[in-house]
Amino acid sequence: MVLVGWLEEIVFRGFLFRAMEKDGLTSAIVVSAVTFCMGHIVNLLTGHATFETLLQVCYAVAIGFAFVMVFHKSGSLWPCIVAHSLIDVLAVLGREVPDELFVIGSVFIIVVAGGYAWYLSRLPGRDSEGEA
User: Fold this and answer.
1) How far apart (Å, rounded) are the C-alpha atoms in residues 68 and 125?
2) Residue 128 lies in a domain
3) Predicted confidence (pLDDT) per residue in 86-104, tens digit
4) How far apart are alpha carbons 36 and 57 in whole angstroms?
């Protein structure tokens, strides 16, 4: 699972976001986060429960926005790779949690990641260095 996070960060932030940001920052951010989210819909085809997968898709979009903002603001994929790998490993370790705890944890992730993405979007980034 550690390698899945590393690979997804390289694909969705490293390649996709970087390729698109020259043509429009906002669209690059949205496409990177939404395609990351859509990539998790595939879990429906692998036998995962529908409700759990839909929750995963919801928090994947929030995490996708947070990670793309971290990458955009810092210029480094490493914080995203480390955080993503930890999330994936912890998800495997916590597979047997009660449904109520899974829902609470999912809502918590959505709120925190979404709030953090919004907060980062308000900060000046690398692209505004040297501007008055």
Assistant:
1) 12
2) no
3) 888 887 877 777 878 888 8
4) 9
What is the distance between the alpha carbons of residues 64 and 80, in angstroms, rounded to a whole number? 10
Q: How far apart are CA 38 and CA 118, in angstroms?
A: 21
Whole-number average pLDDT of the chain: 86
Summarised one tens digit per residue, pLDDT across range 105-125 is 888 988 999 999 999 999 886
Residue 131 lies in a domain: no
pTM of the model: 0.82
Amino acid at 1: M
Q: Report if residue 64 sits inside a domain.
A: yes
Distance of alpha carbon 101 from alpha carbon 98, whole angstroms: 5
Q: Are 17 and 72 in contact (CB under 8 A)?
A: yes
Tell me the C-alpha to C-alpha distance, in Å, between residue 48 and each of 19, 37, 44, 55, 132: 32, 16, 5, 12, 51
pLDDT for 61 equals: 92
Start-to-end CA span in the chain (Å): 43
Q: Which two tokens stand for residue 5?
A: 């996070």
Q: Which domain holds residue 32?
A: 2-122
Number of folded domains that form the chain: 1
